[in-house]
Amino acid sequence: MRFHLAKATLFSFLFAAGLTAQAGVTQTFSAAGNDAAAIQGTVDQFRSVLGTNNAAGAPAASGRREINWDGVPAQFLDPLPPDFFNKNSTRGLVMSTTGSRFKVSGDQGTASFRFADVTDQGWGPTELGTFSPQKLFAPMGSNATDITFFVPGTAQPANVTAFGAVFSDVDLSDSSWMELYDPLGRKISSVPVPAAGVAALGVSFVGVVTDEPVARVRLVSGNAPLDSRCFSSSSDAVALDDFIYSEPIASRELVLSKGRIRATIEWRSQYNGQSGNAFALPQKDEFGYLYFSDPNNPEVFVKCLDFGSGKAIILVGGVTDFWYKITFKNSRGETLVWEKQSGSLSGYANNNDLSF
């Protein structure tokens, strides 16, 4: 793409934004019990909402992805690379933790079976149950796992609309939970993980489906790291099993002003005839950009200034000489369309109140 920083196009207008942001619709799935059978029905219901299992492979338009740890090769068990499930097994998921590393347990007969090599006095095999035998997963030195999403096999940021996880050996009802965040870091949902209700080998599941884009998920597994060496009666060390989530998809809609303004772009190159719909990357609630193919090459910047009284000033700066058409929609469904011709870097300004 041609990138022109010095000659950015700019237009602005007053927009009747609509005062009411649309609240996201969230559906929660939750189950716990003494073995996999106790949560199987709830997990299957969650799967059916998400659609076809796409496994590992090329990006898809819909469906779901799953991770069960059992296919991780021995050389990647400890440490597990944070991007293993986007690079080695392309499922569009990358993890991070404040701990020292990620670890996948070994099969039966190995020293790390159900984390016997890291749990205090080797209690892992007697305490930790599985949903899909035999391997489990956990961060070391931390009880938190942060998950972000990408178009599978690429560096292109993506969002999901559903995420679920199986937790192993949750003893306390307030020790574990799952949090979902939108692309701006705002919390969409926080769901407690139910205690299994048994002393050993119990499993718990929580899943959330929402109509909001989810850019990050945080899993808090227990109130102490699994590899902690000292436990009290109030400590609860927890492992993780299956992850189930909707297909990671790059957003083509830039959402601003708490959902009151949404922008989309159609574009076309006059050089090779390529065309498409731009991808969106919000930066703050009032600002973001759209790109045509490379997330590191922003093409159009959009800023929304909300001065109250249901009015918003929107500023658009283009750093491309391609033809594009930008469409704005407010929370009432009303639209405004502006078209920039190819080869043009001139600005457009309209400070009139546009009524709908």
Task: Summarize this structure as a short list of keywords or feature phrases.
356 residues; mainly beta; Immunoglobulin-like; Jelly Rolls; 2 domains; 6-stranded mixed sheet; 5-stranded antiparallel sheet; 23 strands; 6% helix; disordered N terminus; disordered C terminus
Task: Give an overview of the whole structure.
- By secondary structure, this protein is mainly β.
- The chain is built from 3 helices and 23 strands.
- The model is unreliable at 1-9, 17-23 and 347-356 (pLDDT under 50).
Helical proportion, percent range: under 10%
User: How many strands, which pairing sense, and closed or not: the largest β-sheet?
Assistant: 6 strands, mixed
Order of neighbouring strands in the sheet with most strands: 17-18-19-20-1-23
Sum up the overall morphology in one term: elongated
In the CATH classification, which architecture of the largest domain applies?
Sandwich
User: Roughly what is the average pLDDT, rounded to an integer?
Assistant: 89
**In what range is the share of β-strand residues?**
35-45%
The number of domains is 2
In CATH, what is the class of the largest domain? Mainly Beta
CATH topology descriptor of the largest domain: Jelly Rolls
Order of helices and strands: EEHEHEEHEEEEEEEEEEEEEEEEEE
User: How far apart are the termini?
Assistant: 35 Å
Low-pLDDT runs of 5+ residues are 1-9, 17-23, 347-356
SS class: mainly beta
What's the number of extended β-strand segments?
A: 23
Helix segment tally: 3
From the alpha carbons, calculate the radius of gyration and give it in angstroms.
23 Å
